[in-house]
TrEMBL record:
SUPFAM superfamilies: Hermes dimerisation domain (SSF140996), Ribonuclease H-like (SSF53098). This is Transposase. It comes from Rotaria socialis. It comes from the Eukaryota. GO terms for cellular component: nucleus. GO terms for biological process: regulation of transcription by RNA polymerase II.
Length: 360
């Protein structure tokens, strides 16, 4: 208050003189320095040579430095965000991708490219890819909700199905030894369009895989969807005895792939057929070489992993021939003298897949 009173007295004493004007101008700056921007505002108002409008035009607005996240949240509602999250969860499931794919640089770049294209149509949007994509953990939590929703839809659909086919298969995971069961449903609608659905793919938790337990599992899965085996339903499975016994009271059809797999299997392993001695001899030579390479741990010197023959593996005979043919020139470097002799008996690598078999 004392400074303002002193300033008022000095202003009255020097009013009207050039010296007073200069003194008043200097004191305005002194007061502005002491009191902050209030004195500067008085200086701008008192100086007639400076246009107030010009100052405002050149002056940077503080709003230019505000984060635009508030505007972005208004553009993207919670409903839209959830819709995108559900679509990303479906992308992971349908395309068999990991949740971390959604955080990858390539995927983010793809979304950014789509948004950039969209901005050319609507330039008012300032959104980027990270505003749209939820965290991978958030998306993973939506899988269970999506499963329950789709399952309820499938249960409703199954109520209208009059006839159907199910495919049953069991397998074991190689590293953990866990047994799994898979059941799929197939139906042709009134427009002759085939529909296929996976009813289950879960670990097999029963004591053993006897025919009674297999049938018990299949019946329980079908009951979840309001289905049951009857005269208008078919079972497709492999040709194992336990599968035949499990479904001996319904219409069962063997798997066509397993039937086709029997052709090369018998071709190379059935020694009773004299006409097939030549391909069988070559098969045993290749099988012996492959087993030697795998047994001596020299596989790491080859660009591809040689496949051993297994009767239970689908298309096992073709796999052993195909890979052997692909790296035919590399194999001698991992063989000893004995197996090099066996290798030399295979004159042409194309013989592995190019010979003609007799037809029946």
């Amino acid at each position: 208050m004392a400074q303002r009173k002193l300033f008022s007295i000095c202003n009255q004493l020097f009013m009207g003189s050039n010296l007073g004007s200069r003194y008043r101008w200097k004191n305005y700056h002194s007061v502005a320095h002491v009191t902050g921007t209030g004195g500067m505002q008085k200086h701008i108002e008192s100086c007639g040579k400076i246009s107030k409008n010009r100052i405002e035009q050149k002056e940077a607005k503080i709003t230019q430095y505000f984060n635009s996240s508030e505007n972005k949240s208004k553009d993207l509602s919670i409903k839209q965000k959830n819709k995108i999250t559900n679509a990303l969860a479906e992308f992971v499931v349908l395309d068999g991708r990991s949740f971390e794919t959604l955080n990858g640089l390539g995927f983010i770049n793809l979304i950014e490219c789509v948004l950039t294209t969209g901005r050319t149509l609507l330039e008012s949007s300032n959104m980027n890819a990270n505003d749209l994509i939820a965290d991978s953990r958030t998306i993973s939590r939506n899988i269970d909700k999506m499963y329950e929703k789709r399952k309820s839809q499938l249960i409703t659909l199954c109520k209208s199905i009059k006839s159907f086919v199910i495919t049953v298969d069991f397998w074991s995971e190689r590293f953990t030894g866990t047994h799994y069961a898979g059941i799929s449903l197939h139906n042709v609608d009134g427009k002759f369009k085939l529909h296929s659905f996976a009813l289950c793919c879960r670990s097999y938790e029963l004591e053993n895989q006897t025919s009674l337990n297999i049938r018990k599992l299949v019946n329980s899965i079908l009951e979840e969807f309001g289905l049951s085996l009857c005269l208008s339903s078919y079972i497709v499975s492999d040709n194992e005895n336990k599968m035949r016994c499990a479904f001996n009271d319904v219409k069962r059809r063997g798997c066509s792939d397993h039937y086709l797999n029997k052709i090369p299997e018998k071709t190379f392993t059935d020694e009773k057929n004299i006409e097939l001695q030549e391909p069988q001899k070559m098969f045993h030579l290749i099988k012996e070489i492959v087993e030697h390479v795998r047994r001596t741990h020299r596989q790491n010197k080859l660009t591809k992993k040689l496949q051993t023959f297994s009767k239970t593996r689908l298309n096992g005979a073709f796999c052993i021939f195909y890979v052997f043919n692909e790296i035919f020139e590399e194999i001698p470097q991992v063989l000893n003298t004995k197996h090099l002799l066996s290798y030399s008996l295979i004159d042409n690598p194309r013989e592995c897949t190019g010979f003609r078999l007799p037809t029946y």
